[in-house]
Structures are given as structure tokens and as C-alpha cells.
Amino acid sequence: MNCDLCGKPGRLFKSEVEGARVNACESCSKHGKVFHEIKQETPKVVAREEKKIREIREKKEGAKEVPIIQLIVKDYASKIKNARERKKLKQEDFAKSISEKESVIHQLESGHMEPNIELAEKLEKALGIKLIEEYKENPDELKKDKLPRSNGPLTIGDMINFKKR
User: Fold this and answer.
1) CA separation for the pair 58, 69 (Å, rounded)
2) For the chain, what percentages of helix, strand and coil (3-state, to nearest 5) are there?
3) Which domains does the chain have, with CATH numbers?
């Protein structure tokens, strides 16, 4: 694991720095209150934004294959509801037909829940609509000054520098 503040790998401590609880290295933890040392077995959780930044960095560094990013369309709720109503199905009947709970359909149609890719594919097939957009960015369009500068994982410092620009 790496320090959330500077990105340095090694021994980490659960600390509170400027009101935020972070995993900080020995030198960064001096800037706040240390709670305890973190065992190295702690599983890593990769945020969606960090994954996207890593994909952009790979493109920038000349990776041959540009990954395709799948995104759910913004108006998914109305598309799902309109398509279901066109088929003259109640939420309960539609939910049973695709082996989902009625509450899931209600949350999707009200916009309180965004479907994951698997569920979106199931809905596309059942309703005959398009909910997934594929996005492939041209690496030539990337600009150096728009990307965080560290070479390791994304850190809080990277985000602060990124916001300043």
C-alpha cells in the first residue's frame, strides 16, 4: 500500500491530517494525529476515478491498445420506464421476467440507482433499448498539463494539484 498523501510505499499509519482520516507514511503522519499502524494485509480498494486516471496514464505513455470504457447513459431512468410502459408491463411483471426484485426496477426508474454493466445489458436485451455507451479516447488528444504528475497510484496531493490547474 502507498501513502494517501505523498504516494510513497512502505509502512503506513492510520492518521488524521487536517480533519481527514488517511493512510499516511511515517513522514506524512507527523502532520496530524496517529491512531495505529496499518497491517500490510489490508486489501486495496481501487476507486473508479483512480482506475480511469490509470487508463489515461497508460494511453499517455504510449500503450498500444486503448481500453474501451463503458458508461451508462445519463437518461437511463426514463429510457427504462418508457420502454417498459411501451411493452405494457407492470414493474412487478417486468421484474419477474428478468429475475430481479420489483424494488430494483422502481429504484432504476426513479433514478435512485444506476445499473451496473451486467444489469444494463440484461435491461437492454429485455427492453430493446440502448443503455451502455462505449467511450474510446484518442491518445493524441491527451494533454500533459491535464493529467496528475505522479507516476504511482493517485494520491490526495495529485488531486489537489489537478484541481489547482
Assistant:
1) 13
2) 40, 15, 40
3) 1-45 (no CATH), 48-65+143-165 (no CATH), 70-135 (1.10.260.40)
Segments of the chain with pLDDT less than 50: 41-46, 142, 144-145, 148
Q: What angle do CA 92, 96, 100 make, to 5 degrees?
A: 95
* Alpha-carbon distances, residue 11 vs 27, 29, 78, 158 (angstroms): 10, 11, 49, 20
| CA torsion through residues 97, 74, 83, 132, sign | negative
pLDDT of res. 114: 92
- Please tell me the distance from the alpha carbon of residue 43 to that of residue 62, in angstroms, as a whole number: 30
Give the pLDDT confidence score for residue 53 in this predicted structure.
Answer: 73
What is the residue type of 66?
V
User: E strands of 9-68, at which residues?
Assistant: 12-17, 20-25, 33-37
Query: Which pLDDT value is given to residue 100?
Result: 93
